[in-house]
Design goal:
It is a single chain. Helix 3 packs across helix 4 and helix 3 packs parallel to helix 5. Helix 6 links the parallel strand 7 and strand 8. The strands form 2 sheets. The chain has a 5-stranded parallel β-sheet, with helices on both faces. Strands 2-1-4-5 form a 4-stranded antiparallel β-sheet, with helices on one face. It has one domain: P-loop containing nucleotide triphosphate hydrolases (Rossmann fold, 3-Layer(aba) Sandwich), CATH 3.40.50.300. By secondary structure, the protein is α/β, with parallel strands linked by helices. Helices cover about 35% and strands about 25% of the residues. The chain binds adenosine-5'-triphosphate (ATP).
Length: about 210
Amino acid sequence: MISVDALTFGYGPRTGPVLNDLTCKFSEGALTTITGPSGGGKSTLLYLLGLMLTPTAGTVVLDGVATARLPDGERARLRATQIGFVFQDAVLDPARTVLDNVMEGALFTGTSRRVAERRARDLLGALGVEHRHDHRPGQISGGQAQRVALCRALMKSPTIILADEPSGNLDPASADVVWDTLRERAQSGATVIVATHDPLRAPTGDARVQL
Ligand SMILES: Nc1ncnc2c1ncn2[C@@H]1O[C@H](COP(=O)(O)OP(=O)(O)OP(=O)(O)O)[C@@H](O)[C@H]1O
């Protein structure tokens, strides 16, 4: 469970707060969408939930732990072990192949190459991009890069999945695969939070936070 209590955040003194006194909850085993206008703070809220930003006021509470006062090292540990983040523009390492991009985190934390590669190929296959495994990010489409970024985030079986417009560049069939994958993770117990503009995706009975 993640809860947000009286959360306020601004990027600096010259601009007003992007989020102002926001209180909401994100349940385990559920997919919650964050909707709202462009510039309304959806990505900013995901960065706060992902412990990449610190609130100006209020708190993000992860499983009962108020995160703002945790030491940086502990916040980094939580990010590395529990949180899978899918950025809006994928953010893949341009020098590495698709397969290496997906495997990198697992290798870094000591998983054997054989195990990491099998898992990465399974994920790439499930998301329909396995045939691009030996290409560099510059050689694949934006929609393929989004799916590779989702595979990378899912490699560590995170308990919290934060996805920023994960189907923004995708055709309807590929978007369905991405949303089905995220829903399956929620059904398996993860806390899945997705920022989306897509009105067809948001009102499906999922929990929803409207900014
Ligand atoms: N690094 C930054 N420095 C200053 N202002 C920023 C920064 N990042 C975002 N903003 C501003 O914060 C506000 C919220 O941006 P954010 O990206 O969170 O909105 P969003 O709802 O995700 O938008 P979109 O739907 O267009 O992706 C916007 O006004 C944006 O210009």
